[in-house]
Design brief:
With 237 residues, the protein is an alpha+beta fold. The chain has 4 helices and 10 strands.
């Protein structure tokens, strides 16, 4: 059996690593545009799910997502002025590139947040029918990211969805459960004095007409349930 010197082994290993690195870099650059398009498509689908234009588990093609999204107008809001951000293209806005600001101490455990956020206006017959708002906050194992849709009255909830989280499957991960999501529509965000009143409670909530500010708790996931309440209190307050 041929024996190789230590020097040869190191050179061979270095060359192999170099070639693999180059191939990975080329693949990353070549696929960057496709990856960006897929990320944009996933985001659009999450927005559609929040406003119940796409049902959980429903199979829709990329073309169908784009077609449904034609009725939705993105708007970028500057949280410092509470107005529309100037000089920002809402179509190509990247939340990850937005300047970060430090919020006041909050129960949602948000240490820093973008100074600009992208919201979505769902249009119907030339008028705003719904608003879809980004939400995020700490759960048990990490940050939950999602969208909340409210009626044009800015008070009645139309739907909620989480597209990224690290919660335990079967427990906090039940934020993905369609049955739980179906408990949100027609609930009310604010009380009569316009204070945030919506909350996830322990046990079962009543129907929206008689118990408008409560949503069923997630069984065995008290911290996740509390996290959902805290993030809604932060973002909607």
């Amino acid at each position: 059996m041929q024996q190789f010197s230590t020097k040869y082994t190191y050179i061979f290993s270095f060359g192999l690593c170099l070639i693999c690195s180059i191939l990975l870099s080329v693949a990353a650059v070549a696929l960057k545009e496709r990856q960006s398009a897929n990320m944009q498509l996933d985001k659009q689908k999450s927005v559609l799910m929040a406003c119940n234009m796409v049902k959980p588990g429903e199979s829709v093609s990329p073309d169908q997502v784009r077609q449904m999204f034609e009725t939705i107008e993105p708007v970028v809001i500057d949280l410092g002025t509470d107005g529309v951000a100037e000089g920002v293209n809402p179509e190509s806005f990247d939340p990850g590139a937005a300047p970060l600001v430090i919020p006041p101490t909050n129960a949602a455990q948000i240490k820093e947040m973008p100074g600009q956020v992208q919201i979505f206006k769902v249009m119907k017959d030339g008028k705003v029918d719904m608003l879809v708002l980004p939400i995020f906050g700490k759960g048990l194992w990490g940050t939950l990211y999602g969208f909340l849709a409210v009626n044009e009255d800015t008070n009645t909830i139309e739907g909620i969805t989480y597209y990224d989280h690290k919660e335990t499957p079967g427990l906090g991960g039940e934020v993905d459960n369609p049955k739980w999501k179906n408990r949100w529509p027609h609930r009310q965000v604010y009380d009569k004095d316009w204070n945030v009143a919506i909350k996830v409670i322990k046990g079962h909530a009543g129907e929206p007409a008689g118990d408008p500010h409560s949503v069923d708790g997630l069984s065995g996931a008290t911290i996740t349930s509390r996290g959902v309440t805290n993030m809604l209190d932060f973002w909607l307050g």
